Every structure is written in C-alpha cells, then in structure tokens.
Amino acid sequence: MDIDWEAYGWERLGDGVGRCRLEGWDATSGLVIGRDAVLLYDTGATLAQGTELRSQVSALTGGRRVTHVALSHPHFDHVLGTAVFAGAEVFGAVGMDTLLPRDREALRTDAVRQGVDERAAAEAAEVLVAPRHTVTGEWTLDLGGRQVLLANVGPGHSGHDLALLVTGEREIVFCGDLVEESGEPQAGPDAIPSRWPAALDRLLSLGGEDAVYVPGHGAVVDADFVRRQREELARRFDVS
What we know:
alpha/beta; seven-stranded mixed β-sheet; 12 strands; 240 residues; globular
C-alpha cells in the first residue's frame, strides 16, 4: 500500500520505514512495516503520546496494530508509552527487564523534573512495561518479507543501548540517544562515557558509509556526522 507519511507528520525513510519526532523532547519514534508484523522503535514519554502513536500507526497501516516494540534505552521519553501497545512483543537490551521495574519511581521523578505532568507521569510509571525479550548481542526479527536486526551496541549514553538496523534500498540505522543532532549528546548519571565512542564505532560498522542514521533527537544524519560526534565525545570524555 502507498503510505502518505507526511499527512500524519511522519518522515519517510524507505519502503515501509518512517519516523516521527515527538512533541516535547523531540524524541524519535520509528516504524517498520512488514507483511506480517509491525515494529515500533520507542513509545514516547507518556501514555497519551503512546496512544497518539498507536492511532497514527493504525492510520498509516490501514488498521494494523503494533506487534513488536523495541526500546532504545531506559529513559522516560522513550519508554513510558509502551503500555498502550497491548499484546506487542517488547524487546530491549539485556538488563532492561530488571532495571525498568526497579527504577520505576526514578523514571517518574525524572519525567516530572523534565516537565511531564505529575499525574501523567505517575499513571505511566504505574503500568510501565519491561521488555520480555532481552538482546545480548544481535537478534534478527522476520516481519514478513522484511528482516530487521536489533543490536545491543552499548553501553554509552546509558547502560542499555539498543540500535535497530533496517536493510533495504539503503541501510537505515535507528541509533537511540547514542547519537543526537538537535543538541549536544546528553550524559546523565547512567551514561558510561568511557564506552560511548566504541558504541558509535559499532553503529558505523553496523550501517556502513552509505546508511541513513536516525538520532534519538533531531534530524537524520549520515556516517560523517556520526564519526564527528564520536570524535567530539572522545575529546569531551578524554577517551580514545
């Protein structure tokens, strides 16, 4: 089916692949549509954002539902909308399955500190969904006529960074917050700066020179941008 991505505020990246930039924190959510399954990469900062994503995916796909969710890392603006995707198989980097339930209150607090309404943050934290499937190295998913690769390329921005590679007419790599275009990469208390440049090396190895790289925040970039950000991070944190 022909998809009018722009009509719903989405950006087409390839055949059956698109992304949107969510309001509030400019976080990316990515969509990959296969013949048999539909994968969403990150679910937003609130249940309301997740619900809006769910409605948009249904409209974009002619009424289909999200069957697979991949979470890029365990920060509130990427995971708190997951509960609205009932029945979806949820994937994350190994360790997220125990970290999210344990840090539920910290996620709620961080969301409120960053501007999420207190009630909305509490509701989302209460029904927070942890990954059922954890990725240690790489995991290939068959969506029906299309295979995607989930790759645990971290740690770096967090201790649990999961990238998504979509093959096709041009490789597309969803990077999570390992790469940011709309501002300097943020290094919070769970960042592991000494490993971050190596994580970007793995992203570049995954996608190659001609790939489209989709940051966790900001506009789509190329391999040269990722390489420059890698060098900036290495200088910033005094690592090779």
